[in-house]
Design goal:
2 copies of one chain form a homodimer. Chain A is built from 7 helices and 8 strands. By secondary structure, chain A is α+β, with helices and mostly antiparallel strands. The relative contact order of chain A is 0.15. In chain A, the strands form 2 sheets. A 4-stranded antiparallel beta sheet of chain A has the order 1-8-3-6. Helix content of chain A is 45%, strand content 22%. In chain A, a hairpin with a 5-residue loop joins β4 and β5. In chain A, α6 packs across α7. The interface between A and B is medium-sized, with 31 and 31 residues. Chain B binds a DNA duplex (30 and 30 nucleotides) through α7. Chains A, B: Keywords: Kinase, Transferase.
Chain lengths: 197, 197
DNA sequence: GGGCGTAATTAACCTAGGTTTAGAGAAGGA
DNA sequence: TCCTTCTCTAAACCTAGGTTAATTACGCCC
């Protein structure tokens, strides 16, 4: 798709924070990613120096443990920055993969020079702090739910938070988001159905 | 204890970030808190406009669910800022209490005017973003451990991360940090002892 | 020393959720 | 049309950790 057009979206996204960015510096490094369902932007264990901007579509962050179990940490909707803050700031391999849940479009740009330039811009740094605050708060709520709520409650929470996904996303992935096996989720769903009557 | 002296520590803490702060504005609002073991700086459900700086000692962040179960989210050592970013930025009641694990000293100051002034200071905003990044990374690792590791593994992780606490902290609180009951922890400990032989 | 409150252990029992295996639909491809 | 593959459901069984309750151990105050 049109790189010009997508870059436009990225610029608009940052405009809302009144950050003063010289995009010309990155023109040559910006890459367009057309994703089909199941394609990955970033793979667990990979080192990447890029941040991504999700222009359209939907992705999930998931990780796989040594024992082969999959856990979906986050589901992110466009428009949004996506990427591993941790991997970029500590320059370590990513702890999770980022996978498209539908067809999606994203662009990538190199984080270091961008962050270098941006950390001189107060408006941007403020916006970045706000971004971190918001994902932090989300993470805190998810930790809370994982520890304090039963699987059934977490499923109901998921249905409340993502009403548009509860019927379109495969149940395996819903199960992986709430931290249980698809089999347990199936049990919970039939249990809920019989309770309703 | 000497307010002057503790305030000095707070200023030194921010000096390391080269933030340019006019402390005179807050002199009258700064309060000193001398904490005994078990005293709380902040109580779950309370609204507070203050941020705290832990000058000496050790605190834990814990929350109690409706069903009366306690969960320790974080253990924080001095010197450090402590408080609920979430409660302050959204001006909502705190989701957790902050309790001293030993005798500790802290000072409090009003967050809003401070943050207002500080968000004009690039060095401070950068430092704040780094602070958020660091607690975010910690939270991500804890979420990961809670989901992927067994209670036994989480106990071993705790012993690795807090070697100085594993014998001094009451087992109830260790259990609450790793998200199990004290009874389960006792079982795990005897299990580990017999395994060693 | 004797009582008392708190913390830690132990054992018996229970339950949520994992594991394994099998089968039922739906969807595509030759 | 049949065959394959993928997703979901169902049932039998297992296990980690929760629950309850009784027992012991360790201060601490009188």
């Amino acid at each position: 798709m049109d790189k010009q057009y997508l870059t436009q979206q990225l610029m608009q996204f940052f405009d809302q924070y009144q950050a003063n960015i010289n995009w010309d510096l990155y023109q040559t490094d910006i890459q367009v990613h057309m994703l089909n369902k199941g394609d990955c932007l970033l793979r667990q264990g990979e080192r990447s120096a890029n941040m991504f901007f999700l222009c359209s579509g939907l992705v999930r962050y998931y990780s796989v443990s040594e024992s082969g179990k999959e856990y979906t940490q986050t589901i992110a909707k466009s428009p949004r920055l996506v990427g591993s803050t941790r991997a970029l700031t500590l320059s370590q391999p990513a702890l999770f993969s980022i996978e498209a849940l539908h067809a999606s479009t994203a662009i990538s740009f190199p984080w270091q020079p961008f962050y270098q330039q941006m950390s001189q811009d107060l408006a941007f740094t403020q916006a970045y702090a706000m971004f971190l605050e918001s994902i932090f708060i989300h993470k805190e709520q998810k930790e809370h739910a994982m520890v304090k709520h039963s699987a059934t409650q977490r499923y109901l929470d998921f249905c409340r938070d993502f009403p548009e996904l509860k019927d379109t996303l495969p149940q395996q992935q819903i199960a992986s988001y709430i931290g249980i096996t698809p089999i347990a989720l199936s049990r919970i769903r039939t249990q809920l159905k019989t309770d309703q009557r």
